[in-house]
Amino acid sequence: MNKLSYYFKKYWYAYAFALFCTVVSVIMDMVSPQITKRIIDQVIIGGEVELLTSLLLMILFIGFGRAIFAYFKELVFDTVSSKIASKLRKRLFTHIQGLSISFFDENNTGELMSRVKDDVDRIWAAAGYVSMLIFEVIIHTGIALFFMYRLSPGLAIIPTIVLPVVAGLAILMENKLGKIYEQISEQNAKLNTVAQENLSGVRTVKSFAREKFEIKKFLSHNKQYYDLNMKQSKVFIKLYPYFQLITKLLPMIVILFGGYKVINGDITLGTLGAFTEYSMNIVWPMEMLGWLSNDLAAAFASYKRIKKIFAQKPVIIESDNPVILDEVQGSVEFDKVSLTINDKKILSDISFKLPAGKTIGIMGATGTGKTSIVNILQRFYDVSEGEIRLDGVNIKDLTLKQLRGSISLVMQDVFLFSDTINENVKLGNRDRIIQDEVIKAAKYSQASEFIDKMDDRYETIIGERGVGLSGGQKQRISIARALAKKAPILILDDSTSALDMETEHLIQKSLSQIDSTKIIIAHRISAVRNADEIIILEDGKITERGTHETLLKEKGYYYQTYLAQYGEYSSNHSLSRTGSDDREVAICQ
Fold first, then answer.
1. Using one digit for the tens of pLDDT, what is the confidence trace for 480-490?
2. Alpha-carbon span 81 to 483, nearest angstrom
3. Which tens digits make up the pLDDT trace of 208-258?
4. How many CB atoms lie within 10 A of CB 580?
5. Separation between Cα atoms, residue 311 and residue 502, nearest integer Å
6. Which domains does the chain show, CATH number per domain?
7. What is the residue-wise DSSP string for 530-574?
8. DSSP state letters, 20-67
9. What is the arithmetic mean of pLDDT over 64-87?
């Protein structure tokens, strides 16, 4: 289904009907010069005036008939090409969605947008009006030559010699333009990427006063795009005048030699008139060859790039005979897990057991592999060594749908869609989540506090990536989205970093009431202090593990972090345990 030949075979009957309409339309068009011949020979020269009315009615009939068949021809080509483009775009987008995260690590957004939009559009054109005109050019030329040879074989030799010359020029043009189109498409993808990144990060650009730098970068890519298009134009304008010259000379040569034959009595004046009309009719197909070669070269270049994407296979694949768990309880086990990406060791010998309903906290400096644990748990990447088990089953033996559907994730980089708050919260399971659950999740995440103050409340449209909301508000909506999904496993990846301590404490209190397995990745002690186990990562390895109290006593990384965040006084109170639990909670606030 990823090959164009599949779609052409699928709609062969439509193309056959369109081809039939084209043949009938062209034949009717080619009959007109025959009537012209009779009007000149029989009516004007022969004086048979009584034939004029019937001959004119025939011209009118041919005109109507040609218009009807031409209408159906264009309708079918447009309809079928639209269907092919729509299905191909759908298949391409679906295929891209199914590729592994590693593919997106290597390919930028602008390039993929260019493939899905611009390249498919060129194939759409090739499957539509370009194919239609190619069929029409071939049929038109063939039928015109047939009638020319019937009228005067001697004169017909002239266009027969000219046609291969024009075809050769068209092939030469296609070869030269093909390579340029490849470069233009690649540069177009880069231009899209620069524009997309700049517009998405416009606030960052303005805050660093980088407008001039970004404009300069854009203009640099725009100049390269301009130069390539000028290079394409130079090839076109260098060769296209030859098409025009040949097509203008052909009728003149026909009239010159044909007039000589009329004078000698070899052909009639009507025959020359009809032949001249045929030679004029054969001019436009020759001119179209240049344009068609141009569009066809662009379509072939686009199809080659699309085929490269279809050739990409997901790195993360499901088992042929996957295990389907009746109900996911949520117990997670990492057994001597290591991860290497591009020869770089990310994680090494990670082992821990997280029973269903329990909570584990993960801390460590930036770049120590905390988020990588989340990535391999969801099989965004596969482990290099070891095994990860969900409810005792290797996650590689589960379907990706069940595995990822069992996890609610609040990412460090919050992404909100340009839609209502309601739809953003329902993202985890739109068909199942009812409005009461959306409101409940918003209350648990403390998002209802600001949502209820909005004019449209849950129907408020959020701008692109949550523009107009503060970092804390976006995080709270993201937490609400994860809670509304009601998955057995909840992962919070530094999800409260933009919140004040009071709001964070309220959210932590709400989370403690939720019966799910929790993995909390954070830099703040307050986010992980109540976890059943806390592990500290350093250089992709576990260097400390234990509860809040035991880790403080070890006076390692966790202890130093505690001092940095709450100071010596609060540390002494926490270690002495002479104060109440409420005092320690207050300290963490």
1. 888 888 888 88
2. 44
3. 676 777 788 788 888 888 888 888 888 777 777 777 787 778 888 888 888
4. 9
5. 51
6. 4-307 (1.20.1560.10), 410-486 (3.40.50.300)
7. TSSEEEEEETTEEEEEE-HHHHHHHTSHHHHHHHHHHHHHHHHHH
8. HHHHHHHHHHHHHHHHHHHIIIIIIIT--TTHHHHHHHHHHHHHHHHH
9. 87
